[in-house]
Amino acid sequence: MIGPVLPKYRSGQRIKTAMDLINDESFPNAPPDGILIGAGRTGEIIRVAMHTDENVPIYIVDFGEQLIIGCFEDEIKAL
């Protein structure tokens, strides 16, 4: 069994999206498989959590406009 992956980023850090973030049906008021945030948008990490099944960090990112999204490391880049 592989242990948990240590987070690369931290709370309070500014990031940008590395790709379009697609709705995985966790946003019921948005179209399924629709783009929630386009590539290159900036946001701020407000919390770092762990995905319990995968043992990888999940970054809770505030993109403003009352839009908060959980992101994997490959979906974001440091500014």
Order of SSEs: EEEEEEE
What is the end-to-end distance? 33 Å
Radius of gyration: 12 Å
Proportion of residues in helical segments = under 10%
> What class, by secondary structure content?
mainly beta
Order the strands across the largest sheet as they lie in space.
Answer: 6-5-4-1-7
The number of strands is 7
- Give the overall silhouette: globular
Tally of contiguous helical segments = 0
- What do the pLDDT scores average to? 93
Give the number of domains.
Answer: 1
Strand content: 35-45%
Poorly predicted sequence stretches spanning 5 or more consecutive residues = none
For the largest beta-sheet, the strand count, sense and barrel status come to:
5 strands, antiparallel
What does this molecule look like?
The chain is mostly beta strands and 79 residues long. It has one domain. It has no helices and seven strands. A hairpin with a 5-residue loop joins strand 5 (56-62) and strand 6. The protein starts with 13 loop residues before the first strand and ends with a strand.
Question: Nutshell version of this structure?
Answer:
0% of the residues lie in helices and 42% in strands.
Layout of strands and helices, then pairs:
Elements: E1 14-17, E2 21-22, E3 35-37, E4 42-51, E5 56-62, E6 68-71, E7 76-78
Antiparallel strand pairs: 1-4, 1-7, 2-3, 4-5, 5-6
Defining traits:
globular; single chain; 7 strands; 79 residues; two-stranded antiparallel sheet; mainly beta; five-stranded antiparallel sheet
